[in-house]
Specification:
The chain has 260 residues and is of the alpha+beta class. The protein has 7 helices and 11 strands. The chain has a single domain, classed as 4-Layer Sandwich (Phosphatase 2c, domain 1). This is PPM-type phosphatase domain-containing protein.
C-alpha cells in the first residue's frame, strides 16, 4: 500500500488558516489507518479540533479495529476525542495568558460553543484471505473506491446533489454517545491489488461525484497529483476548477491509498 495526502487552503488563505486535517497511521505495509476531517469555519479553533479528531479516531481504531465497523464504538472514539479537547483547550488558554494574549471577550462565546467538524476514518488491512477495508463517517467527507478505471463505491454520500450547507458535525463538547452514534455511517468491503481509495473533504468530494456524473474519470487527474506530491500544481489546478465554477472555493484535503 502506498499512501499519500495533500492539503490546500481555500484560495486567498494561507496554510495555517486551513481548517481541514488529515492523519495517516501506517502500522506496517499491510495495515493502514487514514482519517480526514473538515472543521466548520463558523466555529473557533475548528482546524485544531479537526486535527485532534483525526488523530484520536486513528489511534482508537488501532486499539480496536471494530471502531470503524461499529457506529457505537466510533461514537465512543469521538467522545474520547472531545475529552482530550478539554485538556488541549485548557493548555491553549494558559499559553495565551502566558503570552500576554488572554482570550478576548468576543472569542468567549465561540469557545463556549466549541468547534465542529466532519470526520471520516478508514482501515485497510492485507490478510491471508485478501484485502479488507472498513470506514466510518459523520458528515460529508467521503471515501471513493476505484477499480479498473471505474468507481465502485462512494461513501457516505453517493451523488453530488446530496451535499448541503448543513452536514452532520461533531462538536468537541458533545458527550452524548447515543446521539452521535445515530449520525454515524459505516461500511465494509474487500479490495484487490490495483484498487485505489480516495478520502476527500466535502468540496473535493462534491466535485469528484459531479465529474463522475458527467462521465469523467476524476481519479485520473487527482491521482496524478497525489502520486507526484505536486502541492503547488494541485493548488493551481483547484484554483482553475473554482474559476470554472466546477468546485466551491474551500479548504481541500485528500488521502490516496493506492493498492497498485
Amino acid at each position: 500500500m502506498v499512501v499519500s495526502s495533500l492539503r490546500v487552503p481555500k484560495h486567498g488563505n494561507s496554510l495555517p488558516e486551513c481548517e481541514d486535517a488529515a492523519h495517516v497511521l501506517s502500522v506496517d505495509p499491510g495495515l493502514v489507518f487514514a482519517a480526514v476531517a473538515d472543521g466548520a469555519s463558523e466555529s473557533l479553533l475548528a482546524g485544531e479540533w479537526a486535527d485532534l479528531l483525526t488523530r484520536y479516531v486513528n489511534d482508537s481504531a488501532l486499539d480496536d479495529g471494530r471502531v470503524v465497523r461499529d457506529a457505537d464504538r466510533f461514537a465512543s472514539a469521538l467522545v474520547l476525542a472531545g475529552e482530550a479537547w478539554d485538556e488541549w483547550l485548557a493548555s491553549y488558554v494558559a499559553r495565551r495568558e502566558a503570552d500576554g494574549r488572554p482570550i478576548a471577550w468576543y472569542e468567549e462565546p465561540k469557545l463556549d460553543r466549541g468547534p465542529h467538524a466532519t470526520v471520516l476514518a478508514a482501515r485497510f488491512a492485507t490478510e491471508p484471505s485478501g484485502i479488507s477495508w472498513d470506514a466510518a463517517a459523520l458528515g460529508d467527507s467521503c471515501l471513493f473506491h476505484v477499480r479498473d478505471d471505474r468507481l465502485l463505491r462512494a461513501f457516505p454520500l453517493e451523488t453530488a446533489e446530496a451535499f448541503s450547507n448543513s452536514p452532520g458535525l461533531v462538536n468537541a463538547f458533545n458527550r452524548d454517545q447515543e446521539l452521535l452514534a445515530r449520525h454515524v455511517r459505516t461500511v465494509s468491503g474487500s479490495a484487490e491489488q490495483g484498487d485505489g481509495f480516495f478520502l476527500c473533504t466535502d468540496a473535493l468530494a462534491a466535485w469528484f461525484l459531479g465529474a463522475v456524473e458527467r462521465g469523467d474519470r476524476p481519479w485520473r487527474e487527482l491521482g496524478e497529483f497525489t502520486r507526484s506530491g505536486d502541492l503547488d500544481g494541485f493548488a493551481e489546478w483547484l484554483k482553475g476548477l473554482c474559476g470554472e465554477g466546477l468546485m466551491r472555493n474551500d479548504d481541500v484535503t485528500v488521502v490516496h491509498v493506492d493498492l497498485g
